[in-house]
Design brief:
This protein is an alpha+beta fold and 81 residues long. 27% of the residues lie in helices and 12% in strands. The longest helix has 7 residues, at 64-70.
Amino acid sequence: MAADSGITAWDCKLNEEVMLVPHGLFVAGDNPMQAEECSHAGLNCNYFCRTCHVGGTQEYKASEAGYNSIFTVCSIPDDHH
């Protein structure tokens, strides 16, 4: 398993082999450090993460339209590339 033994890769900037050791950042939990690592601000925020525009005010998210919008897949606008 990669988390136990790591993965050998080539770093083209350093021009040498490097060892990558993945960490389980996206597992269930409820602590500030995990939220920070996942760029997630929690359910009481207006927006669920720092990179997407999912969410809105608490009132909007509690409405039927707001709740359904959380599960809608949108394409990324051109200005985000």
